[in-house]
Amino acid sequence: MPEPLRLQGISASAGYAEGPLFSLDRAASHYTVKATAADERAALEAAIGIATGRLGGLIETADSEAAGILEFQIAMLEDDALSGPALAAIASGQPADAAWRQVLDAEIAGYEASDQDYFRARAADLHDIRDQVLRALSEDDESTAPAGAIFYGEDLAPTRFLETDWSSGGGIALKAGSAASHVAMLARSRGVPMVVGLGAAGPSASPANPVGIALLDAEHGGIVLSPSPAEIEAFRRSSSSFAARRDKAETYLARPAMTKAGTAVRVQVNIADLSDVDGIDIATCDGVGLMRTEFLFGKTLPDEETQYRAYRKVLEWAGEKPVTIRTVDAGGDKPVPGLTVEEANPFLGLRGIRLSLARPEILRVQIRALLRAGIHGNLKVMFPMIAVADEYARAAALFAEEQAGLAARGVAQKTPPLGIMVEVPSVAIAPEAFADVAFFSIGSNDLTQYVMAAARDNTAVAHLNSVRHPAVLRLIASVVAFGREQRIPVSLCGDAGGDPASIPGLLEAGLRDLSVAPAQLAMAKAAIADVTV
Amino acid sequence: MSASAEATVLITHAVGLHARPSVKFTKLAKTFAAEVEVALAANGPWFDAKSIVKVMAAKAPKGTLLHIRAKGDGAGEAVGALVELVRRDFDEGADHARTA
Q1: Catalytic residues (chain A) (predicted)?
Q2: Which CATH fold would you assign to the domain B4-91?
């Protein structure tokens, strides 16, 4: 029996799977070269037809997410822009498989060279299209994965995912891959555990080199190959605990969150990208507690119109429910080209509102977009990294100036309630300087790292970085108490809000309004139901 | 027929003119007889709007000002319909259900 081997990657779809490893990186099957160029041409056209037909067959039983991917692949296969160059290569003497591979590999290289995640992820679709046709060309019976297998390899084709019967378990462990890929989206929607980015260090499993059973922990993003009996036992405990939590959580999703004692708790969602709202039923949450706007600030600074449309889309999606948009929080671990500056200690430097006030022309554009979007829903706006009251006063003054400017030009607008993030300890310790803000939103990630002096991105001090430390919880409780006294609403929008282990402490500290990642919504509601406050 | 038309439209879709949106875009373009092309800049390069491979290769992310031009029979209608599709955000969300 080989030694156990642990590999660490990134979770792309949470869950647990135990099963035989099935290698995806096997040698391609053989293609028999035909006698004439005309035969080669006919073989390629037939293979494209077979592949298209197979994809069409899969659409019949696919859900809309999968059907969209399949329709895209069919459209690509039916496009002369792919088959044309391949047929030309055949005419010049190449066999069909080499001709097709050459054209597709050139396309794939173009996608892989992209600087956008979404576009790079499409390379997997092109790989899939390529292999579908190569498979049809060689008419080779591909050996099928055993039931409950963990697919292990460089990357997995979306059609391969759809052809696989996941009803008896199984999972996906990829050396490369991306959480933004079509396969990752499919895995999340079907609840198939998936880990990406395990690296190339693992063994190449083959009949000659069996690794036996593998344990895929896609809750924490790891896999164990050739595990010991003790590891298997521990894994099964984690797995059944996860399954129990998930099953139980699902029953809570559609209901308003409430503790065991009957105390109502508002649970909102955090949004980091416009596409996030596509996967959320607004009826399952109490609004958006944090809409980050950094995604708009990519390679170039977004113009007012782009921002306005993005804010409006989320506001209209949320209907009457509140949407709290945070002004751009660049700096720290979130650099933005053309905006942030190089610093020796970025977490303690020019980030959040500090940077926005240093570059008011950029903040003003965002403020105008927010004022205009404000008429389309229940908007609230908050400023990140506020340390002293003057920063809030200056940011609020910019809102007033831009509002007056828009009003003078006859542009429809509405000033939203303005609040602040509570993440710098100075605010949590002395909140009385902020008695005039509309609301407080506790940013527990930064508050914890500043109180504990333990950087969020440093695994060496990760054990110190706990929101459950009494010092952090005491500060949270004092902010909640101040808010009650002054009638200022207090919510929390850090990762701790969606962490079942931290939720009891947060509710005991007096919080009744949490904002969590969409994927944690059900689990958070279930955890709240277990608390006795 | 020497009809021709040209217009620009801002792509607001979260992932730009990719995958599902580009399927809709090219399918619609193919319903017109006119020769239709797209570009990311007024001076090109221009891509065949009826080819999903070419449209995808244009790599138009969200926030791109897409240039659309058409030549021949129904050029004006073709440009108008494609601009509308982009403006409607490719009917994503409302018309997410498949028709197959």
Answers
A1: 182, 493
A2: Histidine-containing Protein; Chain: A; (3.30.1340)
